[in-house]
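We treat protein structure as text, and this decision shapes the records that our systems exchange. The remainder of this section carries one protein's record, kept here as part of the documentation:
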Amino acid sequence: MAQLPETRPDFPESFRNNPLRQVRIVFVRFVQGLFFQAPHGSYHWDPDDESTEIVITNENKIDPETCMRRPAVSFTRGPVQFYSLGIDDMMSYEADTGKKTKSVLVPGTVTVNCVSRVELEAEDIAWTIAEHMWLLRDTLMLLGFFEIGRQPSIGSPSPAGSIISGDSGDEFTVTPVSIPYQLSRTSSTTPLGRQIIRSLLPTVTTNPLSSFNSLGPPALGPQEVTVVPPPSFAPSASDSYGRSPDPTGVRQVFLPKQPHPLNPAVQVSVRTLYPFRAGSR
């Protein structure tokens, strides 16, 4: 069974909080799920160490007694390096607060060690892992990787002296699989104690053209407004509403009356300010 590192309940595992640990966890659980789907008799992985057909562990050394009759898989995270993307890796800068947001790519590799007492068996397991890492890398990218599984490499078989604990490492063969990956990291910093506002000066201004204060809408409720179109240009022409003009040739225009918005007791006329504007038509 894989021995995954424990974490605090208030500090969840994620690429934001502990990215390097999350890399190990994703790789281990992916390989475990891959061989868990295999049928029994074809390197089926089971959480129970007594019934599993393949041992999948983390970076700990493999006990020779555990993998004496079955193959094993372990993982080794290689070095990572921050890859610069521009001047000061700057993504954005806020001049008022001094906040800087930087973004980089962090490439690295994880080596999957396939150990077995049979050299061909270790190679078969290494090929299965490399092919599925390349084939299902879209699924792994959904878990937080920027890039993963592109151009994996399978090394040559060699004695597993550094993988197997004790002096019996030369009896086992390890075939390494190198899986490259990239993480996208974006972080921001804001200076402490930075003076953002020097002072606040209250200023009160008045409009000299205003002679009254608005009292809001009238208390009488909504009023009905009747729109009367302008008279026709010719006596024999009809207006825009299809009605015939006055027989005398002079159209009588009556402007409607309605209460003044500020003084409802006064009746005022309503006329169109710019009747021939596109918005008024």
Q: What stands out?
A: The first helix runs from residue 19 to 36. The mean pLDDT is 77. The helical segments are 19-36, 119-135, 137-141. Strands lie at 55-56, 72-77, 90-94, 99-116, 147-148, 153-154, 158-159, 173-189, 257-259, 267-269.
